[in-house]
Amino acid sequence: MQDIEDILSEAKLPEKSVQLCLRGDLQAEWERLEAELAAVRKAEAAEADADSLAGPDRSAGQEIADQIVAIEEQMQASTRTFVFRGLGKRAYSNLTAQHPPTEDQRKGGADSNWESLEPELLAACAVNPPMSIEQVGKLENALTPIQWAKLVAAAFELCRRDVSVPFSLSASAIRASTGRK
Question: Which residues constitute the domain of residue 90?
Fold first, then answer.
């Protein structure tokens, strides 16, 4: 027979990580260089066809490729991981009760005022980095709407979605190829 104390000692609230690149300003330069590299490669291919014995000079393409890689490295270095943990039922219910929907929101089927709830939900669920409501507000102003939505969706899903045992097809394929099950 199971003991509820044993079960309670095993119970952990779900966690989720969200990665965001905070240097989106570099995207335009990356796209410009990518287009420039495509044009250089096209020109190199035309030169190679015209003079198949000499071969093309790849220095221009290499220089652009190096610049692209440098930008990719900058973007990767500026990618941050946010870790959120779901709230227990009572904590989540208490939080949402503090943010009742407006009349218009209620007519639309909303059970909470998400505009006022989102910052508090993120602050309550934030594990790494931990954030105050004020800091969450500053973060909201520094992100694009889709980046903000990713963070909010993670916190909401942790509180309102079921946790299932994940399955990694990649890990399974690697283990199968090495004879492990």
Answer: 4-21+82-160
